[in-house]
Amino acid sequence: MYAVEVEGLSVSYFETTALEQLSARFTMGQLVGIIGPNGAGKSTFIKAIMGLIPSEATTITLLGLSTKEARTRVAYVPQRSAIDWDFPIRVLDAVLIGCYPKLGLFKRPRKQHRQLAMSCLERVGMQDYANRQIGELSGGQQQRVFLARALAQEAELLLLDEPFVGVDAGSERVIIDLLRTLRDEGKTIVVVHHDLSKAADYFDTLLLLNRRMIAVGSPTDVLQAKTIEGAYGNPLAFLQKVEVSS
Ligand code: ADP
Ligand code: MG
């Protein structure tokens, strides 16, 4: 069984074809990076497998189930720009939303749910901010809160869209360490990431796409000058970036 199995996935927005006949499979218990240039269809891929936008495909399964069946077992954190950070909500309540699938939408959270939410905030080092408004936090802190919400959901598959954008180096460390721990606990984590310089260090498997699938496999296989050129048009841009990071 695969954590994610997609065959022949196509998505169009009016005239724009965002994804064309994309196929990919991710085995369970891996930290997977989805890479590709701006506008390549990375967010579209995540939204399509979550069933949030219309798509055509021969197969889409998550944890061996249909998207609908898998919903409560999958946590999704949209990209920063898609979240309304001015929405007035307390940090603890934002995390409690992760408990709703267990709770039923209109039931009041109980003490045990608050305790679970607090322990999730502890795992991301944000327990002292439980009563703050989400809009008061830094980008890195906000991303950690959303990760705590995904933890509260106790999902087996996490889909994170650009979790390191607008995030300070300290928060990035906390987040990647936690993702590695979750992977070691057997969860599958799929991360959209546009910064190639860290891709080899962060991920077990990479999917490089640009409207179509360009390459999928281990970072050493995928991060070849030829495949990068296929996606980005310029392999040198990537090689320079890697040099800077090492
Ligand atoms: P990425 O996340 O890799 O930057 P996206 O999946 O957001 O790329 O977008 C893929 C393509 O689809 C881009 O050309 C983008 O402009 C287009 N697109 C994305 N969302 C919409 C939308 N809601 N309506 C029309 N076009 C869209
Ligand atoms: Mg995107």
Give the number of helices: 11
Question: What gyration radius follows from the Cα positions, in whole Å?
Answer: 18 Å
Structural class, from secondary structure content?
alpha/beta
CATH architecture: 3-Layer(aba) Sandwich
Strand numbers in spatial order across the main sheet: 5-6-7-3-8-9
Mean pLDDT: 89
Describe the protein in words.
There is one protein chain. The protein is globular, with a radius of gyration of 18 Å. The strands form two sheets. It has a six-stranded mixed beta sheet, with helices on both faces. α5 packs across α6 (about 140-150), α6 packs parallel to α7 and α10 crosses α11. With about 250 residues, the protein is an alpha/beta fold. The protein is about 35% helix and about 25% strand. It has a single domain (about 1-240), classed as P-loop containing nucleotide triphosphate hydrolases (Rossmann fold, 3-Layer(aba) Sandwich), CATH 3.40.50.300. Residues about 240-245 have low confidence and may be disordered.
